[in-house]
């Protein structure tokens, strides 16, 4: 009865899901139509996208309601499965009991049969035989009843097994449906993407464009290409790496160490807040004329398809300069959480405080992907970095200037091997450029050199 009710609930809920659920193909078409126009041109060349007629609040309310209903239904199904399993175990136990009773009766019967004397029967032995026959008849009836009961139990058990299989199938179907539902995170992410694209469209890019900006196909792929084409003046240029969907502005340093560098991070006065969330770190923030983070998407486009060098310039409040140079540096795509995929070939006088982070995913205050299960390194240390558990450097940490009280350890914009984790530096600049030739000994460093230990946070 209970199980039948459950199946009706499932059927009702399946109908409900079908009514609310947007098929993935349809969603895909909806997403595609948000990204490309009817002319098939990329979105960023078109007018702003049309948002759905429903308000965000309405859609979000409906998504929340769907999620709550789904969680409730799944919980109900789980408790039904638990109850069925319990009943099945009880029935199996009863069945085992019946079997052992039957076995005992068979033993008794055998013993009685052995006790019946053969040969001449006296009146007393005839009486005993009659008693024995009665007991045997009783035992036989008992055995028949037990056999019938066992058959009933077996049938019940089989019925329960079928019900459990059916519930398991329904649960799998629901879980599959869940994976196709639009989640609030997906919805919010989509809104942020649209906002970003609108922002990009309205930005006055042409102000900065060099004379060669007549078409995206002619844009240089990196600052190195700008330098190779004869430019020698550092400044802001527009580039489009081969795998980037659209061009973007960068600061090129065409002078330091033979030039060709793209600046991916610049901090020197604390005017820009670097305690930002995932969205900002993905797309970049700040002012290319001042402090900025170029964005993980752009860093991936610059370094994800060919190995780059990474050059880090640091300065403390006594105006001591230090550098850290890595002959190989590569950041993965967002689906790999912008992992620091390749790092090696350190040289310089700042000390190596980054190799500890090689292989780690990027984490922000709202996206904990670090190796510290009990907490968020980005929140605890006030930054965003390729945290492990947690860090030996934190160049996107808080701009705190100089020696720090003990409670601020790891919080500042610090480089462990230079002034330690209780010191916030004055300047930090990170630059990348394509590395055309790689020394085989550097490759060896990249894949074998790992730090023996680090300042694990416990
Ligand atoms: Ca964590």
From TrEMBL:
InterPro entries according to UniProt: Fibrinogen-like_C, Fibrinogen_a/b/g_C_1, Fibrinogen_a/b/g_C_dom, Fibrinogen_C-term_domain, Fibrinogen_CS
Signal peptide: 1-19
Span of domain Fibrinogen C-terminal: 214-436
Any GO CC annotation of this UniProt entry: extracellular space
Molecular-function GO terms, alphabetical: carbohydrate binding
Region of interest: Disordered: 32-54
Coiled-coil annotated spans: none
Superkingdom per UniProt: Eukaryota
Gene3D superfamilies found in the cross-reference section: Gamma Fibrinogen, chain A, domain 1
Compositionally biased region (Polar residues): 32-48
Pfam families xref list: Fibrinogen_C
Keyword line: Disulfide bond, Signal
Summary of the function given for this chain in its UniProt record: Lectin involved in innate immunity. Agglutinates all types of human erythrocytes, Gram-positive and Gram-negative bacteria. Has a stronger agglutinating activity towards Gram-negative bacteria than towards Gram-positive bacteria. Specifically recognizes acetyl group-containing substances on agglutinated cells. The hemagglutinating activity was inhibited by EDTA, acetyl group-containing mono- and disaccharides, N-acetyl derivatives of amino acids, other acetyl group-containing substances, propionamide and benzamide.
The protein's name in its UniProt record: Fibrinogen C-terminal domain-containing protein
């Amino acid at each position: 009865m209970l199980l039948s009710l459950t199946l009706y609930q499932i059927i009702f809920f399946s109908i409900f899901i079908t009514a609310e659920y947007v098929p993935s193909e349809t969603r895909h078409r909806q997403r595609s139509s948000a990204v490309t126009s009817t002319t098939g041109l990329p979105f960023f060349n078109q007018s702003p996208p049309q948002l759905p007629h429903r308000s965000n609040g309405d859609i979000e309310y409906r998504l929340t309601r769907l999620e709550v209903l789904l969680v409730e239904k799944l919980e109900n199904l789980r408790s039904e499965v638990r109850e069925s399993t319990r009943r099945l175990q009880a029935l199996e136990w009863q069945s085992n009991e019946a079997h052992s009773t039957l076995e005992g009766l068979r033993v008794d019967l055998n013993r009685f049969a052995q006790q019946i004397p053969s040969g001449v029967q006296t009146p007393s032995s005839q009486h005993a035989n009659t008693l024995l026959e009665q007991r045997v008849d009783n035992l036989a009836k008992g055995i028949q009843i037990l056999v019938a009961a066992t058959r009933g139990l077996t049938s019940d058990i089989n019925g329960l097994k079928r019900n459990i299989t059916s519930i398991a199938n329904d649960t799998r179907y629901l879980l599959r449906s869940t994976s196709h539902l639009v989640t609030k995170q997906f919805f919010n992410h989509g809104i942020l993407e649209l906002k970003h694209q609108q922002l990009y469209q309205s930005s006055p890019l042409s102000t900065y464009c060099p004379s060669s900006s007549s078409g995206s196909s002619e844009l240089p792929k990196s600052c190195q290409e700008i330098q190779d084409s004869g430019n020698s003046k550092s400044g802001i240029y527009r580039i489009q790496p081969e795998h980037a969907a659209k061009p973007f502005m960068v600061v090129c340093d065409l002078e330091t160490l033979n030039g060709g560098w793209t600046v991916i991070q610049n901090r020197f006065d604390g005017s820009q807040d670097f305690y930002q969330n995932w969205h900002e770190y993905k797309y970049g923030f700040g002012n290319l004329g001042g402090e900025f983070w170029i964005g993980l998407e752009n860093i991936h486009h610059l370094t994800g398809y060919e190995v780059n060098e990474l050059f880090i310039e640091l300065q403390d409040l006594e105006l001591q300069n230090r550098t850290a140079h890595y002959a190989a540096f590569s950041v993965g795509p967002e689906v790999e959480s912008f992992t620091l995929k390749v790092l090696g070939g350190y040289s310089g006088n700042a000390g190596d405080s980054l190799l500890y982070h090689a292989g780690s995913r990027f984490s922000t205050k709202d996206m904990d992907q670090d190796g510290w299960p009990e907490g968020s390194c980005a929140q605890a240390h006030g930054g965003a970095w390729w945290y492990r558990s947690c860090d030996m450097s934190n160049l996107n940490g808080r701009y705190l200037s100089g020696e720090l009280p003990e409670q601020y350890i790891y919080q500042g914009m610090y480089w462990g091997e230079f002034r330690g984790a209780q010191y916030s530096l004055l300047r930090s600049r990170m630059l990348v450029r394509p590395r055309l030739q790689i020394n085989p000994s550097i490759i060896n460093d990249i894949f074998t050199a790992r730090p023996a230990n680090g300042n694990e946070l416990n």
